[in-house]
Amino acid sequence: MKHILLLIISVVFLSACSNGRKHNATMQRGGGVGDVPQDREHVLTDTSTVNGCYYGSGELPGTVWIQDSSMDGQFQDDVYDLATAKGDPDGTGENGLSLGNVSGVCGASTGVRFSGKVNVEGGFRQGQPGRVQSAAEFILVIFDHYAVESENSENRIPGIGFYAPRAYGQVNSDGATVEMSWEGGVITLEGWFDGEDFLGTIHYKNSKHFAGQSPAQGSLGKFIVPTCSFFNCQ
After folding, report:
1. Rounded to a whole number, what is the distance in angstroms from the first to the last CA of the chain?
2. Which of 40, 44, 83, 214 has the highest count of CB atoms within 10 angstroms of its CB?
3. Using CA atoms, how far apart are residues 188 and 179, in angstroms rounded to an integer?
4. What is the spatial distance between Cα 184 and Cα 204, in angstroms, rounded to a whole number?
5. Global pTM?
């Protein structure tokens, strides 16, 4: 009986240690490539922004979404490929991201949200062409199920963040193409203006791969963001 009791205690202890290692590894979420600045890190745990359908909220008003739930598997694959420039999506070590499930479906509990501060020379005025200035800020966050399910936990698991401090592009009379340059590549928003919104397609072109393989590129899906939260409207 004594031996059985000791065996049970040992199993419970080993299980707890294993779970603890996995949790701590998940908390790392990457190897420092394109990290969000420390004074903006609070957005990585603002999972309330994924509660909406099209618009985000708070400091991440932009949403990446897909038109059909049948495309959700491809969306997950593209999010995975984007993340390979930052770290190992499957990994739990030093460069591990521990990427979980993430959906682009409208109203899903997980998702991808972003914000931007893009300056147009002379100020943005819809209908007037202008050149995008290089000094900018773009933050994109992947809120997977690990981040969302930990929102009421003392040990919050942050989303996976990407930070771009430079922008290039052009605004024309009815739309814009803006390339956000980050440490792992370029994220491009190509779209048009519809009322108070800037919407279109968001692409990525990585410049590196965590394992030295060919960098990935593709499209994440559609995006929508209030125009004047993204550009310096006059």
Report:
1. 79
2. 83
3. 4
4. 10
5. 0.86
| H/E element, 18 | helix 2-28
User: What pLDDT, in 10s, does the model give residues 26-62?
Assistant: 344 766 788 999 999 999 999 888 877 767 778 999 9
Q: Which two tokens stand for residue 202?
A: 């968001």
Q: Which residues contact 211 (CB under 8 A, 6 or more apart)?
A: 84, 88
Overall residue count recorded for the chain in this entry: 234
pLDDT in tens, 136-186: 999 999 999 999 999 888 888 999 999 999 999 999 999 999 999 999 999
- Residue 138 DSSP SS3: strand
Residue holding tokens 């059985």? 4
Residues 65, 67, 69, 70: is their CA dihedral positive or negative?
Answer: negative
The residue assigned the tokens 């989303």 is 159
User: How many C-alpha atoms does 62 have within 13 Å on its Cβ side?
Assistant: 26
**63: which 2 tokens?**
């949403």
Closest among 147, 143, 113, 140 to 27, alpha carbons compared: 147
